[in-house]
């Protein structure tokens, strides 16, 4: 009887018909780093009986998930769809394996494996979801909702456009008296906002950018922010460029404002990785001097762990600031900040908190040291980096510094 039941199970699970169970895995074209990305699975049962179904997905190694499991009882002709989310914390290529389905009858003596989807590859790009969010807010003038400040323009930091007739309500300071004398009527100068300024993101990929925060490295936060800033800059008719470096220059993308330029920036950034050597500021200065002759806004994303290391790089930063508008962006150490807030229970805790406070104070001294040398600086936690950098960029635009 036992052997008979096994034979029946075998005949039910392996019928002569070819179409018994179909399924597919729907992957997005690309994943957004640091964001929840949705994957959907569709399965349809063509067995003439009710069967038990277990689904095991072979996820990419980067997620380190080895217990993905879904199960359901499917009636004849029933379809089943489910979705799950994945949050990558590294950029690069992610390889999915097979989508496996294990089927068994009510008796459950035997099971059959069917591979519903073949291996697939997905590229993980910098956070384009965050980029789109800021883009929509910029278009609809709602950037203030995420902390971006509205900065009033100072003076007439604008380019001359044309001379036209005076209209009631025009600023009398724009009257062109020579044109008024020639035409025998009031004529005014019309201006437009300055456009086509060059914005370069200089991204340090040295060992100090390997430090993690909430699953992402400091390099990932810098890349995500530079992508958002490049997109907003192009929306405001500026040109966006890119330089990445560690012990040598890794990539150089000239500043442009073309329809496919943002995609080029994403392709350039998605597979950039940190090295474990010190960054070479001399090489950065050499490439900037050679490849960027026009005065531009240079936003340097780096990290200083001590006052001594900042002073060591100061001569090169001064040279960059002499020819360009330089903004240095570096990071607060959140773990040290948490240590200061903890309650001290013994002498050892007091020593630790004292050292942590000195460490945090040195970061503030670095900001003052940079500003004293004519270099703009931002000291920000990784989570607030995008908003802080956007505010500084809009402030520069309003003041006409670029």
Structure notes:
The chain is of the alpha/beta class. The protein folds into three domains: about 1-125, Sandwich (Immunoglobulin-like); about 130-150 and about 195-400, Rossmann fold; about 160-195, no CATH class. The protein has ten helices and 20 strands. It has helices at about 1-15, 130-140, 175-185, 220-235, 260-270, 280-290, 305-325, 335-340, 345-370, 385-400, and strands spanning about 20-25, 30, 35-45, 50-55, 70-75, 80-85, 90-95, 100-105, 110-115, 120-125, 160-165, 185-195, 200-205, 210-215, 215, 240-245, 250-255, 295-300, 325-330, 375-380. A six-stranded mixed beta sheet has the order 17-16-13-18-19-20, sandwiched between helices. The model has no long low-confidence stretch (mean pLDDT about 85).
- Provide the CATH superfamily of the largest domain: von Willebrand factor, type A domain
Q: State which percent range the strand residues make up.
A: 25-35%
- Biggest sheet, spatial arrangement of strands: 17-16-13-18-19-20
Count of alpha and pi helical runs: 10
Annotated CATH topology of the largest domain: Rossmann fold
Largest sheet: 6 strands, mixed
The CATH C-level name of the largest domain is: Alpha Beta
Quaternary organization: single chain
């Amino acid at each position: 009887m036992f052997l008979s039941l096994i034979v029946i199970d075998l005949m039910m699970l392996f019928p002569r018909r070819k179409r018994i169970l179909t399924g597919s895995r729907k992957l997005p074209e690309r994943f957004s780093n640091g964001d929840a990305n949705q994957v959907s699975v569709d399965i349809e049962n063509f067995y003439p009986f009710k069967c038990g179904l277990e689904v095991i997905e072979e996820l990419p190694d980067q997620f380190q998930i080895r217990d993905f499991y879904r199960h359901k009882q499917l009636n004849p002709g029933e379809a089943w769809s489910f979705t799950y989310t994945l949050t990558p914390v590294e950029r690069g290529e992610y390889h999915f394996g097979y989508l496996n389905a294990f089927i068994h009858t009510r008796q459950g003596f035997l099971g059959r494996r069917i591979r519903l989807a073949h291996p697939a590859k997905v590229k993980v790009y910098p956070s384009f979801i965050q980029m789109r969010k800021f883009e929509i807010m910029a278009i609809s003038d709602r950037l203030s909702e995420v902390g971006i400040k509205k900065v009033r323009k100072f003076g007439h930091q604008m380019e001359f456009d044309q001379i036209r007739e005076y209209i009631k309500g025009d600023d009398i300071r724009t009257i062109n008296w020579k044109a008024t004398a020639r035409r025998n009527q009031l004529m005014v100068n019309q201006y437009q906002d300055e456009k086509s300024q060059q914005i370069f993101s200089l991204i340090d990929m040295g060992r100090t950018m390997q430090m993690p925060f909430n699953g992402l490295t400091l390099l990932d936060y810098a890349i995500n922010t530079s992508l958002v800033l490049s997109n907003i800059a192009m929306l405001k008719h500026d040109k966006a460029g890119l330089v990445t470096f560690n012990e040598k220059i890794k990539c150089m993308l000239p500043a442009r404002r073309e329809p496919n330029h943002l995609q080029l920036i994403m392709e350039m950034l998605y597979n950039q990785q940190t090295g474990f050597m010190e960054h070479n500021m001399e090489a950065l200065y050499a490439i900037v001097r050679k490849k960027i002759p026009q005065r531009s806004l240079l936003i340097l994303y780096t990290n200083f762990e001590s006052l001594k290391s900042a002073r060591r790089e100061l001569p090169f930063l001064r040279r960059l600031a002499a020819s360009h508008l330089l903004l240095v962006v570096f990071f607060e150490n959140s773990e040290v900040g948490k240590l200061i807030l903890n309650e001290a229970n013994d002498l050892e805790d007091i020593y630790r908190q004292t050292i942590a406070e000195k460490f945090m104070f040195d970061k503030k001294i670095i900001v003052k040291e940079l500003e004293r040398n004519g270099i703009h600086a931002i000291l920000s936690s990784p989570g607030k980096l995008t908003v802080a950098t956007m505010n500084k960029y809009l402030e520069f635009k309003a003041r006409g510094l670029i």
